[in-house]
Amino acid sequence: MFGMRKLGAAAMIAAVLLLAGCGADAAKDAETLNAEVQISGDAAAEMLPGTGAAPEMQEEVRPPEDTAEVFPAAAPRAGLYDGRTLSCIYSKNQNERIYPASLTKIVTACTALRYVPTDVVVRVGTELQFVREGSSVCWLQRGHRLTMYDLLTGMLLSSGNDAAYTVAVTTARIVAGNTEMSDGEAVEYFCGLMNDFVEDLGANNSHFVNPDGWDDDAQYTSVWDLAVITSYALKVPEIREITSLQSKKVHFVSGGSITWENTNSLMNPESKYYCPQVTGMKTGSTSLAGKCLISVVQLDGSEYISIVSGCEKEKDRYGSSLELIGLLLDGEIDSIKPAA
Known about the structure:
With 340 residues, the protein is of the alpha+beta class. The chain has seven helices and ten strands.
C-alpha cells in the first residue's frame, strides 16, 4: 500500500455587490452495495498505473511573496495568478494552511485520471457509507453503473461527495490490483495516492485524508498550493472540459438519467454574479473552510487563476472573486460583467 505522506498595485472596485448567494446543497442517505469495476476490450490493457493520459508534472515553482494590499476584505486568503506561468498578480496570506473543503475534488479527479481510463464502467456500492450527513451529493444510488468520466462529472459539477468516494474506492482497487480490498482500506490507499500526487507536483503545504473535502485537522492546503494544483488540472482535458460546463445530462449505463448543474454562480447566466470570462473551476464550502472558490478566467487570449478562501457568505466569495478579476482590467469589472 502506498504510504500517507505529509507534505508539507491593486485597484479597488467601485461597484458593491449586494445579492445573497445560492442555496445549500441537499443531502442524501448512503446506501450499500459492494463496488465493482467492469472493464471491456482495450480498456483492461490500459489500467496499469502510469498508463493514463495525464500531463507531465510541471517543474516546482516557489511561492512568491504576498503583495502588500489587503483586499478583498471579505476573503481572508486570496490569490490571482497567470494560469500558465503561475506568476503572481495578487496574493494575500497565500501560504497559510487552510481547510480545502470541496476544492479537494480537483485533487481527487487529477489522482484518479493518472490511473483510470475514462471509459471504465463503475458500479456504485458500499463506499457510500462514508458520505456524511449534510454532504453535497449528486444522488448516486446503489447499483448505479456509469463511466468514470460521468462519475467525475457528478463529482466536479454537482460537488457530489458520494461520487468522490466511488472514484476513490474504484481507483484504489484498480491500482492495488485487489478487488477484495475493503472500502476503508481503499479510501486510505487512495488518499496515499493523492498525497503522492501533490508531493510530485511540489504542493508541499498540502495533505489529504479524504477524497471529498470533509473538514479534518489532518487535511489542509494553501492558496498557493491550490494555484499549483489548478495549473496542472488545466492541462488535463477531461477536468478542463467538465468544469467548463454549466450543466450536463448523464445517462447511466444501468438505465435512467440525471442532470447535474454547476455549483459556480459566476458561470450561471441567470445569476447576477455571472461573469462570461469565467470558464471553471470549483466551489467549496464547509464550516471550517468557509466559502471558497477557484475560478479560471479567459481574457484577451490569456488564462488566469483566481482563488478565494474563508469567506463567510456566498456573496462574499463571488464578490471577492470579481474584485480579483477586476484587477486584470484596472478595476473596471463592469466591462466584463453585466450590471446587476
